[in-house]
Design goal:
It is built from 1 helix and 12 strands. The strands form 3 sheets. Strands 3-6-9-11-12 form a 5-stranded mixed sheet, with no helix packed on it. It has a 4-stranded parallel sheet with strand order 1-4-7-10, with no helix packed on it. It has a 3-stranded parallel sheet with strand order 2-5-8, with no helix packed on it. Strand 11 and strand 12 form a beta hairpin. The longest helix is centred in the first third of the chain and has 4 residues. The chain starts with 6 loop residues before the first helix and ends with a strand.
Length: 121
């Protein structure tokens, strides 16, 4: 299910515009800097202050289970986050990574399939 978003909102923060069926709202601070080719399952949960770049897929597995994206996560271009997994708070998903397993908080996930490393501050 999709909610129409006016084009002028797509190039800046779309807080209050990400469709959540239960509350009919978007998570606070969601940013889509280049909102082209982004696919987000209607069962996925995205928490506050996330950044999602172009051509990202956040999708369900064959059982219809979708990811939970933690607070402050950055997902770079072309990444796929698929299935019944959890991306921990303040993690980074690298460009073109294919994430099929849960990623702990404060980690960086890269590669196909993705492996994760602790994030250095």
């Amino acid at each position: 299910m999709f909610k129409e978003i006016e084009v002028e909102f797509l190039c800046r923060s779309v807080a209050d515009y990400y469709w959540d069926r239960s509350t009919n709202s978007f998570p606070k601070g969601l940013i889509l800097p280049h909102p082209i080719g982004i696919v987000i399952s209607d069962n996925a949960l995205i928490n506050e202050d996330c950044i999602v770049y172009q051509n990202v897929t956040i999708g369900e597995n064959s059982e219809g289970k979708a990811p939970v994206i933690g607070k402050g996560v950055i997902i770079y271009s072309g990444a796929c986050v698929i299935g019944n997994i959890e991306i921990g708070d303040f993690s980074i998903i690298g460009a073109n990574a294919v994430v099929l397993q849960s990623v702990p908080a404060y980690s960086v996930a890269v590669g196909v399939p993705a492996i994760f490393f602790p994030r250095k501050n």
